[in-house]
Amino acid sequence: MKLWPASLLGRTLIVLVAALILSQAAALWLVHSFVTQPRGGVGMGLFVSHLKTLDAALQTMTAPQQQEFVARVAEKEGIRIMPVRGNDEAMRPAADAPPIQLFRDRIRELFGPQANVYVRGPDIEESRRTRPQTLWVRLPAGERDFWVAFPRGRIERDPAAAFVEWGIAGLVIAVIASFFIVWKLNRPLGELAHAATKLGQGGDPAPMAETGPSEIRAVTRAFNQMKEDLRRNARDRATFLAGVSHDLRTPLSRLRLEVEMLEGKVDPAAQSAMVQDVADMNAIIDQFIDFMRSEAAEPLSPVNISELARSCAERFARTGLAVRCELAEVPLVMLRPLAMQRLMDNLLANAERHGGGDVLVTTRAGDQKVGLSVLDRGPGIPQADVERLKEPFTRRDEARSGSSGAGLGLAIANRVASLHGGKLELLAREGGGLEARVTLPAA
Q1: Which three-class secondary structure state does DSSP give residue 119?
Q2: Kind of pairing, strands 144-151 and 80-83?
Q3: 184, 188, 299, 355: which has the fewest C-beta neighbours closer than 10 Å?
Q4: What is the fold of 8-158?
Q5: What string of pLDDT tens digits covers the 443 residues of the chain?
């Protein structure tokens, strides 16, 4: 399992989140050191001064005035004041946390070394918590001492919750912002990748919209220009080959007519060979035209691979090819019928030319795929030559003499298979020969 994602979105999110966590940690430390602690010290100093004021006021009041004053302070400020009755053993000194220690030092400066900060031991409500939430200070007020109970937050604030909420909010904002930014970048890149794949399979994708950052626009503009250049080159090449093929048709037809009129004047075997040569040249011209034809322009329609294979095999059987069929029940697939027929015709023609006259056509279905195979008992193809022979105008050396063809049959079949999202494989057949296997997605 890879911890480092492969997508640009995942990598960007990880980098931004890591950077934000580090920056948040640094910001929290700076805020705590230079804001929270100094402000806490100022607030603590004000509260200590307030205690001094309370102590001074209690010393100057009579008992009834003290009772009224205590009630008013409790109502307005939430500070409870009660007289000390004997030796209150329920009180125990508060733990030496840094804020408590600082507060203890401040009150000892005002009320003497005997002053301390206490918590109430047997308070059931407070004992359930991890730390007491109410602190007590013993104030000497003339003839009597008073307990002053106040919320712990008056001298010590716990910013942990605020810091956690701050960090979580920052992370959420960063993730959403980075997701939006990278998504805006990834969308044109994904469309560009899809268009490049379609173009590589022989399709004709629509021009890409030149939007987004300047770098993305530059890449999109270069892709559009490349697509137009490729289309122009293909059009020029098609025009050239179509013109040459068309110009050769007339002299070839005339030559064949003249050869057939030589009957009785030349050796019959020589005349038959010349007729066959003219037919081979016509076949080569047909291959040129098929190779330059754009299959991508043909609309998709539902096709039964088995029926298509049967039809092509029967047509070749009428020309004298010994071909057998073992066809399976396959689902309908959205394909280009004429393009698939050219694929099948080229595979059968290749098997007829090199397969020794024993050809088997099979189809299959399964695992969301359909496929067909054309098997022969010819010499086969070495594994090292498989990919080379899928290229246009390539043939095996031993087939260059005595065999017709321009080396375009497998190239046409491979291009048609790629156009439909499939692949053409040239495999060694068990028992000798070649299996030309085409696999296509069923959905």
Answers
A1: strand
A2: antiparallel
A3: 299
A4: Beta-Lactamase (3.30.450)
A5: 556 677 766 777 777 777 777 877 787 777 767 666 666 566 667 777 777 787 777 777 877 887 788 788 877 777 888 887 766 666 777 776 777 777 787 777 777 777 777 777 654 444 445 556 788 888 777 677 788 888 777 776 656 666 677 778 877 887 787 778 777 777 888 888 888 888 876 677 888 888 877 888 888 899 989 988 888 887 777 677 667 666 777 787 778 777 777 777 778 788 788 877 777 777 777 766 666 666 666 788 999 999 999 999 999 998 888 999 999 999 999 998 888 998 999 899 889 888 766 899 999 998 889 999 999 998 888 888 888 888 877 776 544 344 555 677 888 898 889 888 899 999 999 888 999 999 999 87
CATH superfamily to which 299-441 belongs: Histidine kinase-like ATPase, C-terminal domain (3.30.565.10)
CA dist., res. 313 & res. 290, Å (int)? 19
Q: Quote the CA–CA distance of 70 and 62 in Å, as a whole number.
A: 12
DSSP 92-160: EEPP--HHHHHHHHHHHHHH-TT--EEEETT-HHHHTSSS-SEEEEEEEETTEEEEEEEEGGGT----H
Beta strands in 70-133 (DSSP E): 80-83, 91-93, 117-120
- Which residue is it, tokens 């028992």? 431
